[in-house]
Write a structure and sequence with these properties.
- The chain has about 180 residues and is mainly α.
- The chain has one domain: Ferritin.
- The protein has seven helices and no strands.
Length: about 180
């Protein structure tokens, strides 16, 4: 039963990620509030960074596998750095950024906080595979099509970092015997 609930939560998170990319109602409000697609991207990335940092903290505390703990610390460090750069971009454009994860990632971290040991490790890393695949697609799009040249340049700089995050998460997921993660682009 618990595995079924976990799979349902993972499915909801993946659907939520697709909603974020496809423009569901909650993301439309964020886009309207921020005024333009490049600014909306900054808002979405702020939510993403906050969720990766929060989930990384859980991994450092709850993971049983040392590589998963190291990955969690890497998420904290690298997404904190990226968020600092993001805040500078947003400030120059007078965009107010959220400092918390979106609702779906709050649900994910609440769920992960209930887990421990190998089950935590597998579910955390599976979530990181999905999150980073979606983030990479979003950043690759902005790296090519952002109207603002500074945002485009910053997105281009982040793409190889996100590719590495995804590669490491996929590798860990395979070694931990995690479920295959369906990635819809």
């Amino acid at each position: 039963m618990r595995m079924r609930n976990t799979l349902m939560l993972m499915g909801a998170i993946m659907i939520g990620g697709l909603c974020a990319l496809a423009g569901c109602e909650s993301t439309m409000r964020a886009e309207e509030a921020s005024g333009q697609p490049d600014n909306f991207f900054l808002v979405q990335v702020s939510h993403l960074n906050a969720s990766e940092i929060e989930a990384g903290r859980l991994a450092v505390q709850r993971a049983s596998n040392s590589e998963v703990r190291q990955y969690g610390q890497m998420m904290i460090d690298e997404h904190t750095r990226a968020n600092t750069e993001l805040m500078e971009l947003a400030e120059l454009r007078d965009v107010t950024l959220p400092n918390e994860p979106d609702q779906l990632h709050v649900q994910l971290t609440d769920h992960l906080a209930e887990l421990s040991g190998p089950q935590f490790d597998r579910e955390y890393i599976s979530a990181m595979v999905g999150d980073h695949a979606r983030a990479l697609a979003m950043f690759e799009d902005k790296a090519r099509f952002a109207n603002d040249p500074e945002i485009r340049r910053w997105a281009q700089q982040q793409v190889p970092i996100l590719r590495e995050h995804l590669r490491k998460a996929q590798e860990l997921n395979r070694r931990l015997g995690g479920a295959d993660v369906l990635i819809v682009e």
